[in-house]
Amino acid sequence: MQALIELQERCTELGWKNISHRLDALLEEASANSITYAEFLTSLLTVEESHKKETSWNRKVKNARFPFVKTLTEFDFKVQTSVDERRIRDLLARSFYREGHNLLCLGPPGVGKTHLGVAIAMAVIDQGESALFVRSDDFIEAAKEAAERRQIPKFLRQYAKPTVLIVDELGYAPFDSVSAQILFQVVSKRYERGSIIITSNKSYSEWGDMLGSSVLATAILDRLLHHSSVFNMRGESYRLKEKVKAGVMPKASLDSPEPGVTRG
């Protein structure tokens, strides 16, 4: 028993905490199956490797700050026919993020833009990379705060670091001159080095009003679109359809866009 305790302590010191907790059971299993020393060592390494991968995956998902966890398997491509699943799978198979390739998901509210963006980022994490999600209104507030505290370099490092950055719902909140300039700096820092996934209900012609500067909008779009894939998503809002099904809203609501929202 003392030998087992000493082994567990040594495993813990080496950072093999998972093996330390499971060592007793693993030894019993090895004895019962009369496996060789090499097979036992292989099983130990496999257990620890699997644990480290799972821990790393969980940490990356947590650090990504997703509003929810959704996968491509859960995305209904049969309903959202304006998105070609093969095109998405091909981008992931080619590791689009390695060349700083950007993805823009454009369309009216409720057609699955955020779900698609999160699902793609989740697939990127599955490939061992990192991601960060931020809503545009939160980005604006954080950018202004960073400027007030004179911490813009730190802010830029934070948003330049992840393999994939998702800026969600671009267009719902107007940018002021400070946050718009910082968005330009983020896009510039990531240009050809890190991928950006943008979801927006605004057409390109409206970006000048959204950012308060047509010159800045042109500069940002020039960098985003240079290496990019654009998904123009159409259809009725999933959320409104669910409300209609539940009898909460009349069917006519599906034919009327939300006030102040661009359709398409």
Question: Which structural traits does this protein have?
Answer:
alpha/beta; single chain; 11 helices; Rossmann fold; 5 strands
The tally of helices reads: 11
Question: β content, as a range?
Answer: 5-15%
Highest-level CATH class of the largest domain: Alpha Beta
- Count of strand segments: 5
In the CATH hierarchy, what is the superfamily of the largest domain? Answer: P-loop containing nucleotide triphosphate hydrolases
Helix content: 40-55%
First and last CA, distance: 69 Å
By helix and strand content, what is the structural category?
A: alpha/beta
Order of helices and strands: HHHHEHEHHEHEHHEH
Task: Tell me the strand order in the biggest sheet.
Answer: 2-3-4-1-5
**Main β-sheet description:** 5 strands, parallel
Task: Write the CATH fold name of the largest domain.
Answer: Rossmann fold
| Stretches with pLDDT under 50, minimum 5 residues | 252-264
What would you say the CATH architecture of the largest domain is?
A: 3-Layer(aba) Sandwich
Overall pLDDT level: 87
